[in-house]
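Known limitations

Files may contain more than one protein. Parsers should not assume a single record per file. Below, a two-record file is shown to illustrate correct handling: read the sequence, read the token line, then continue until end of file.
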Amino acid sequence: MLLSPVVAALKLIVTPGGAQEFRKVATAANFAAAREDLKQPPAVYVLPMNDAAGQNSLGGGAIIQPVIERFGVVLAVSNLRDASGVAAQVEFERLRRLVIDQLLGFVPGDGYEPCEYVGGSLLALDASVLWWQLVFRTGYMERNY
């Protein structure tokens, strides 16, 4: 799974003044690793999720099959101002939109399809951080002939 091009694309999200929007943009093996790594929000972590291969469309030992890869983009947004999460929700919605706009249609590498948004879900909300995962998918063809 090509995660480093996704990280590079997310690093291009900047404020109107030209500063990076996120204090940290990185990969993580899973949510627990991202949570442990977080020093200061807002941050975004790119996580591998899964891939699924379709059926081989050739025969006789030749192989060509589609592969769909899914990856998560985990947002960590500060929730210090408001225990109810309302302030974090406003900031989250703004950052969520920036990430989706940046990755929708993004091609992570040669032979890959443009990224599509699949959905999102709340991972955790505590007194200091709102964690949300956005899920994207892309695909390519696996070949051996």
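...continuing to the second record:
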Amino acid sequence: MKKHTIISIILLLIIIFIFINIYIINFSNQYIINNIENIPSADVVIILGAQVIGDKLSNILLDRTESAIDLYENNKVDKILISGDHGKKYYDEVNAIKKYLLNKNIPSEDIFIDHAGFDTYDSMYRAQYIFEVNSAIISTQKFHLPRAIYIARKLNIDAYGFPADKRIYSDKNEFRELFARIKAWLDINFDSSPKFLGEKIPISGDSQDSWDIKKIDDNFISTLLESAIKQTTEDIIYDPSYFQIDYPNGDISSNKGVCTDVIIRAYRTVGIDLQKEVHEDMLNNFNLYPSKWGLNATDTNIDHRRVPNLQVFFSRFGEELEISNDPNDYLPGDIVTWDLGRGITHIGLVTNHYQNKTPLIVHNIGAGPKLENMLFNFEITGHYRYKS
């Protein structure tokens, strides 16, 4: 091949490269809305994944997530779709974002998760095909929005972009986008397929179908867990103070609680009053319960709210199960107790939500009820299963 022919081909490729970039930017710019008040309402805001370190969101991802929360709280969308990389056992963008949203009191029923959004094309393709999204607002940075909007609209999603630029980012992102837009153009024009598809999970349906969870057929366990998880969306202050409460079915103020109150309140929704059950057993078997508090009589205000007392009760009237390091041994609805050190005990409820194949726990360790991956964070001292 002659030298001038090679030069001509290189120049042509450069022209095509520049043209595709300009085309995608011009195509998408009209759909980028900077003012939240002016952006059209949509079915869902799509959070596109980015780097996480454990459960910690990178600055880029944190800004995308916060911008999505702004859209949700301003009633611009009804649902949030998290789309990111969860293809490796120890790397999980989507559950890190989910945890952040739950901690910001976003209702779990409005959070959908796409575990196979490995790149922007896969995210948009699956949003349309798997989640049946018709209209969306895309929450990502300005350097990324033209490509994301271009792909979404070419896949028949009525998409707008809301810039998530809350700080200055590296210029490397702009440079990478030059080549990423070429890939996006090729994906669209050659009708590429994503790495994974799967069953339909309509955005108008049940968000739990998209979560990394196990389906629960047992109505007792399902109700128990639903109640416990709901507590994670409520504003509850950790308060270990002694309170005078009614008997039976007594409870402290609903905006206060400790770890045991998570369990007590969850069991009350399935018709079990642990205050009454523990009190009646202690009346007849006081010597079987711990005497570490120097009491010589029962106290309906506090007995059931102490972890060691619940351990005795669950071991007597439920199943006391093996303590192991295998997460598969801990089933949804199981109760676990821990030693936090310095004589501090803790209790939580195993859920049907998972991260890296480990069940998440609903517990209140001091910052209010949380749904967290903490099963093996402390020494486990008890493992129980209790149904009346």
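Parsers that stop after the first record will miss the second one. For reference, the second record is described as follows. The two ends are 84 Å apart (CA to CA).
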